[in-house]
Structure formats: C-alpha cells, structure tokens
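Weekly sync, protein design subgroup
Attendees: M.S., D.O., the rotation student, P.L. (late)

Item 1: inverse folding check
M.S. brought a backbone from last month's batch and wanted to see whether the design step gives back something sensible before we order anything. D.O. pointed out we never logged the input encoding, so this time it goes straight into the notes. Structure tokens as presented (136 positions):
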C-alpha cells in the first residue's frame, strides 16, 4: 500500500521495468569495468575516491561509500594499490591514518569509463524519467 492506495498492476509493471533498466545499466557498467581490467567494485572505489568533495579520502571513507566492512575495504584498496591505481600517504592530521590518491593511470581509466557511463545515462534519461513519473 502506497499513501493508503493499493498497488495496481501498472505500479508493479513500472517497478519491474525500473529494476530492469537499472540492471541493464549495471550490466553495462560491469562490462565497461571488465574491459579496463577492473572489477565493478574496483571501478566504484576509484569513482568514490575521485568524486570525494574533500582531499582526505581514507579506507574508511571507501568502506562507507561502497557499503563495505572496513576489512573488506582494506583488501579492496590493497588490490588497487597492487594494480598501481591507488597510492597511500600518511594523513598530516593523524599519522595513523592513510589517505588515498588515484594514480595517473587510474585517472585515465576512470575518465574513459566515466565518459561512456555519462553517455549511457544521457541515453537512458528519458526512459528513467518516464518510469519515475509512472511510479509517482
């Protein structure tokens, strides 16, 4: 029941279509990441680091943004560092904390992925807007 109204067949159809379009986008994203030698989670971590509105990106921040446990985020960042995509530096405020930075190679890969993702979102925008209006 939504706002006191029973769900209709049209509501179920809109919700199913919305989930289908989201899954199509995720599959597109997964293929893009794989074409660059990344897992979807690695791509998402690079994007979270790059998109941070602050320069103090820690493993804890990555864990929060990717909804991971801290030890899982540490393993992910370790793998990114091994791939030469992330570097760690000591925090000037707290030497116990490592801050993350993307390498030039990571920035190049992420730029390529982000350009194609933005194009796909622009392509999907009319369909998503129509679906969101149907759910409303």
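Designed sequence read out in the meeting:
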């Amino acid at each position: 029941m939504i706002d006191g109204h029973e769900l209709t067949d049209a509501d179920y159809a809109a919700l199913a279509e919305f989930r289908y379009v989201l899954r199509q986008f995720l599959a597109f994203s997964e293929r893009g990441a794989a074409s660059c030698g990344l897992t979807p989670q690695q791509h998402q971590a690079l994007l979270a680091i790059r998109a941070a509105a602050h320069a103090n990106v820690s493993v804890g921040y990555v864990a929060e943004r990717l909804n991971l446990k801290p030890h899982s985020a540490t393993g992910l960042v370790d793998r990114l560092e091994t791939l030469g995509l992330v570097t760690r530096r000591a925090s000037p405020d707290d030497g116990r904390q490592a801050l993350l930075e993307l390498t030039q190679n990571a920035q190049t890969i992420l730029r390529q992925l982000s350009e194609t993702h933005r194009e796909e979102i622009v392509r999907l925008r009319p369909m998503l807007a129509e679906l969101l209006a149907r759910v409303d």
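Discussion: The beta strands are 86-90, 98-102. The chain has five helices and two strands.
Action: P.L. to compare against the previous round before Friday.
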